[in-house]
Design goal:
heterodimer; A: alpha/beta; 4-stranded parallel beta sheet; 18 helices; B: alpha+beta; 4 strands; about 45% helix; binds flavin mononucleotide; binds iron/sulfur cluster; binds FE2/S2 (inorganic) cluster
């Protein structure tokens, strides 16, 4: 059985865990009080030494990101919270917002103090109605309790927090598109550099952090950087929320130690509780649909940034999707490819033209109309958006291009026989049941 | 006919004024998403005259409002019917029967995904962050998860 000291989920399941009263009962906002007695530089340093890394996808060291904000820039500084959570397979931030919004809000207050930011925008995806209601109520509670407003906990530090809801666009989770959206525009990513920490919202220095990233901050300040870093691996502190979905007995969000492997996640009795009888995992997406797929014999890898990087892969958003040995991987990849074609913002030619082209080829193969050479063509199209390996060679403005190409490269290379079988048999070998053990639906 | 009833006009004006307090005075245009959301919550969609009102309040052209409105799928620049039904068919939901849910609804409502009638707009949508409680759908902004076909029937039996 996997043991974990809960950081993010410690209050989940308690009655009224979303309220200020309940959060305070567990010592909530004590870390903010402590931080306000430190200097902003000390707070940033503590976060740096904790080895906290961003939970939004890229795993960038959080304290280091904060330190990029220029101190001598006369413009106001901003914190933008990324609660867009739209990466397929990812569903963790929503539970933080539903169960314990104050943990994130306390993290926001501490981060803003460290950054000398007096305005924070919390950007939640438009579909999060319930989550927006709970979070907005928590923000109002914090204002009434003197946690936000002109004098944060009675000090001279001023902080305003405003919740903005998106309106349905995956691309707005990309940090520069999120900033464009916060500026009231369509979500078209900006070329980097300059990075948002230097030129962000309204042309001012802006830190963009994920919901889960910020929710870790209070515990770091309360218990110290060493406590947090020791919990994790060499280069990555703390625990991690993993979103487990697909063909497993118990899908859900689990807080696990950094060293937890995919096999442990799937089979542990406190986590996924194994596969349905007689089924084995065939393919596993390790970090949201943008991450390269893994085969069954790679599943003893830890679900952690460095371990996955060593395998030319990525821990991404923590969205783990399991496909069993009855799942059609051509069909699965076609659906994933369609997503990126749908969500491409259309600014860059390789992404705008390449994503629908990938989708058309995959559809053709899945429907039994594929011919020799189609798989090679598919790989060529994917390479024209972003070659692989390694990750990050994209020919596009933002990483959505890489995200669209990585699944294609990895599914095709690792499961080539399935693509060829579709072409040879001129049909999908899985017939009317392409979606694996649970594909018939719930009864 | 005027776009807003006097009551609605009051809500719109007060709403916009409140939203603008959260932005720098010289950045009114940044309030576009909350402002369009407000308009849609009042009228059920974004009528052209409404987008013009938003644009003039935020001191931008109406083309700018329209450009933003058409970029985001949750904004309706056409009248959507009483209920917008969004069924997630992305990977995790498909692994739990989402295509069955969609075809069940297509039959039930007599619409193909992407089509609308007086009462319903039926759409296939992308991941709604319910992959662990798949499959899922939204009716307007109400979210439903762990769907079986029986549960879908029950949800729709409650819609008038
Ligand atoms: C296409 C695309 C979509 C993204 N979607 C999200 C998202 O929904 N939520 C998120 O936190 N980060 C998302 N990211 C990553 C952000 O750009 C950014 O790295 C992150 O918010 C930084 O926060 P962190 O350092 O705390 O992880 C996305 C990136 C790309 C390229
Ligand atoms: S890579 Fe795709 S989504 Fe990103 S900016 Fe270019 S066209 Fe838009
Ligand atoms: S795939 Fe349907 S909610 Fe994520």
């Amino acid at each position: 059985m996997i043991q974990v000291e809960k950081v993010i989920t410690k209050n989940w399941g308690k009655p009224n865990s979303h309220t200020l009263a309940e959060y305070k009962r567990g010592g909530g906002y004590g870390a903010l009080e402590k931080a306000l007695k430190m200097t902003p530089a000390q707070v940033t340093d503590e976060v740096k030494r904790s080895n906290l890394r961003g939970r939004g996808g890229a795993g960038f060291p959080t304290g280091l990101k904060w330190s990029f904000v220029p101190k001598d820039n006369p413009k106001p500084k901003y914190l933008a919270v990324n609660g867009d959570e739209s990466e397929p397979g990812t569903f963790k931030d929503r539970y933080i917002l539903e169960n314990d919004p104050h943990m994130m809000l306390e993290g926001i207050a501490i981060a803003c103090y460290a950054l000398d930011a007096h305005q924070c925008y919390v950007y939640l995806r438009g579909e999060f109605k319930k989550q927006a209601e709970v979070t907005e109520a928590a923000i109002q509670e914090a204002y009434r309790a003197g946690i936000f407003g002109k004098k944060v906990l009675g000090t001279d530090f001023q902080l305003d927090v405003y919740l903005v809801r998106g309106a349905g666009a995956y691309i707005c989770g990309e940090e520069t598109a999120l900033i464009e959206s916060l500026e009231g525009k369509k979500g078209w990513p900006r070329l980097k550099p300059p990075f948002p920490a230097v030129v962000g919202l309204f042309g001012a220095p802006t830190v963009v952090n994920n919901v889960e990233t910020l929710a870790n901050v209070p515990a770091i300040i309360a218990n110290g950087a060493e406590w947090f870093s020791k919990m994790g691996t060499d280069k990555s502190g703390g625990t991690r929320l993993i979103c487990l979905s697909g063909t497993v007995n118990r899908p859900g969000v689990y807080e696990v130690p950094m060293h937890c492997t995919f096999n442990q996640l799937i089979y542990d009795e406190t986590l996924g509780q194994g596969m349905p009888a007689g089924r084995k995992p065939k393919a596993v997406i390790p970090g949201g649909s943008s991450a390269p797929v893994m085969t069954a014999d790679e599943l003893d890898t830890a679900m952690e940034f460095e371990a996955l990087k060593a395998k030319q892969n990525m821990a991404g958003s923590g969205g783990v999707i399991v496909m069993d040995d009855q799942t059609c991987l051509v069909r699965s990849l076609w659906r994933v490819a369609r997503f990126y074609a749908e969500e491409s913002c259309g600014q860059c030619t390789p992404c705008r033209e390449g994503t629908p082209w990938q989708t058309r080829i995959l559809r053709k193969i899945e429907e039994g109309r594929g011919v020799k050479g189609d798989v090679e063509l598919l790989l060529k199209v994917a390479s024209s958006i972003a070659p692989y390996p390694p990750i990050g060679l994209g020919n596009t403005i933002c990483a959505l291009g890489d995200a669209a190409a990585l699944p294609v490269h990895s599914f095709v290379t690792k499961f080539r026989a399935e693509f060829d079988a579709h072409i040879d048999q001129k049909r999908c070998p899985y017939g009317d049941h392409p979606w694996g053990h649970f594909g018939g639906g719930r009864s | 006919m005027a776009l807003f009833t006097p009551e609605e006009q009051k809500r719109f004006d007060a709403g916009i004024a409140e939203i603008l307090t959260h932005y720098p005075a010289d950045r009114k245009s940044a309030a576009m998403l909350p402002a369009l959301r407000l308009l849609q919550s009042i009228k059920g969609w974004l009528p052209p005259e409404g987008m013009e009102s938003v644009a003039s309040k935020l001191e931008v052209t109406k083309e700018r409002a329209y450009e933003v409105a058409t970029f985001y799928v949750m904004f309706h620049t056409e009248k959507p019917g009483r209920y917008t039904v969004d069924v997630c068919t992305n990977l995790s939901c498909s692994l739990w029967g989402a295509e069955k849910v969609l075809s069940h609804l297509e039959k039930k409502l007599g619409l193909k995904a992407g089509e609308r009638n007086e009462k319903f707009l039926l759409r296939e949508t992308e991941c709604l962050a319910s992959c662990g409680t798949a499959p899922c759908l939204q009716v307007n902004e109400e979210h439903h998860e762990n769907l079986s076909l029986a549960k879908v029937d029950e949800i729709f039996s409650r819609l008038s």
